[in-house]
Design brief:
The protein is an alpha+beta fold and 143 residues long. 27% of the residues lie in helices and 29% in strands. The protein folds into three domains: 45 residues; 67 residues, no CATH class; 26 residues. Bound molecules: zinc ion.
């Protein structure tokens, strides 16, 4: 029951991230962005666009620009996972609704349960048999 605050914040964080991802899904219909960096003789790129996130590992020279890039294009969405291989690169595409869904389900699961009668307002400890003015678990005054 001590974990009640942790649960509240975990649930809030998960749901906030899910909402951010949903905004990104909508925005990625018109915009694509990527961050590319050099990793030894290879280029690693993380990006989003068309409702999906991309993870690409390519040979040097396969990517023209390192660093951040942002492009605008006509709306299009793709809704499913895919893996694409070329001689120069391999890329994995993950539809962004998938992690958003995972975060939403997790946030819903992690949300604190409603408190029943006789539970501490702060930590949820069952005060039933406890005496005194303070919660024996967290020290909050009983309401
Ligand atoms: Zn308490």
């Amino acid at each position: 029951m001590l974990h009640r605050r942790v649960r509240i914040w975990t649930a809030r964080l998960a749901i906030s991230l899910a909402l951010l991802l949903i905004v990104l899904v909508v925005g990625s219909g018109w915009y694509s962005g990527a961050y590319a960096m050099q990793a030894g003789s290879r280029v690693v790129m993380l990006g989003f666009g068309s409702g999906q996130g991309a993870f690409v590992i390519g040979e040097q020279g396969a990517q023209s620009a390192l660093g951040w890039s942002l492009h605008r294009f006509d709306p299009s969405w793709r809704w499913w996972f895919s893996i694409a291989q070329t001689p120069q690169s391999s890329q994995m595409l993950i539809p962004l609704w998938a992690p958003a869904l995972v975060l939403l389900v997790f946030g819903w699961w992690a949300r604190p349960k409603r408190l029943g009668k006789g539970q501490c307002l702060k930590c949820g400890y069952a005060l039933g048999g406890a005496d005194g003015e303070l919660c024996p678990e967290c020290g909050m005054s009983r309401g």
